[in-house]
Amino acid sequence: MQIQLLRADTTSLKVDALVYPAESDSAEPVVVSSGNFLCRFVIHVPAPKAGGGDDEVRLRNATTVALERAEELAIASVGLPPIGTGFTPERCARVMLGAALDFRPRARSLQRAVFCLFGQAEYDAFEGALKELEG
Fold first, then answer.
1. What is the pLDDT of residues 64-93, one digit of tens each?
2. What pLDDT sits at residue 15?
3. Which of 88, 95, 105, 120 is the most buried (most CB within 10 A)?
């Protein structure tokens, strides 16, 4: 599974599925049709909030669950915006990219995980974290 960083609006992504944060961090992941998005599916996952003792664990789990759902759908590409609320871009990047890199050996149909980053600060944080994590 290739990990890509793209500075763009999520609505412009051409991927098979788009991960979207659910309003409640206690909600179960749900897959729905995409409506007006360019993708086929939207995978709603809990949106972890920073500030709790297990906030990084919840963000990591949400990222992993999103990738697992993408695999279950047997799709080739998934778009992931930063889904943590209240996390610094650097912290969010480290946790989400770490989860994606750890998931990589389990990927079968999933060929691309595209991290969609709206601003330059987010992009720079994810780019730096990816370089650091990939060593």
1. 999 999 999 999 999 999 998 899 999 999
2. 92
3. 95
What tokens were used for 30? 């749900």
pLDDT in tens, 88-123: 999 999 999 999 999 999 999 999 999 999 899 999
CB 85 within 8 A of CB 21: yes
Report how far apart, in Å, the C-alpha atoms of 24 and of each of 35, 63, 67, 84, 130 are: 21, 15, 19, 12, 28
Domains and CATH numbers, the chain: 2-134 (3.40.220.10)
Report the 3 state secondary structure along 13-65: CCCCEEEEEECCCCCCCEEEECCCCCCCEEEEEECCEECECCHHHHHHHHHHH
- Do β-strands 17-22 and 2-7 pair in parallel, antiparallel, or remain unpaired? unpaired
